[in-house]
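Researcher: Next sequence.
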Amino acid sequence: MKIIILIVILTILNNSSQSEQGNYSYRQTHYYESIELKQNQKFTYLLRKNFSEYIVNGNYNISQDSLFLNSFPQRDRIIVREENKRNKNKDTFIVQTKEGIDFHYNLYLTLEDGNLIVLKNKIGKSTIKNKRIKSFYLKDNNGIRSPEHVIYGNSNNYFEIFFETKRVFENESWILKLDKIKPRDFSGSLTSYYLKK
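Model: Next structure:
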């Protein structure tokens, strides 16, 4: 009797995960977003926006009404090298993609007194004078946001930053409802639209 109940439960669980498999998509003018949920809990995410295309592969898990996504292979969103340069009166930020390419970004600086300074529409090198910076993060023009980086040493004032401009899923949760999925945008906020099967 226990074996029969176990077989029935396993069959139900297997069929429920297979029912979520398939391609979910959303289309607008100059915009296409889709995710394909495959067997063995693998996924392929595709975003076409104007002239850009992003493809991310990874693993997914479903728990109740949530779809959890993890990129594979996993990548760091930001790598920072800190140094102490002789000029104590200014902080310098050299920002590039991980491929070594300059790009447009906004730099958000949190000061030790709690104030926030935003350096907008920068490219390559940015400097700021006479500020005691506690931490910072970046956003690119596509809305991809780095994690906040806390500065290690009080005397460090030169920062080489290598930013991942490709989408990275790190235990990111999307809402799953019947035959549609509500995704998150590059900044992590839920979108106003659904990807439909």
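Model: Confidence is low (pLDDT under 50) at residues 10-16. The radius of gyration is 21 Å.
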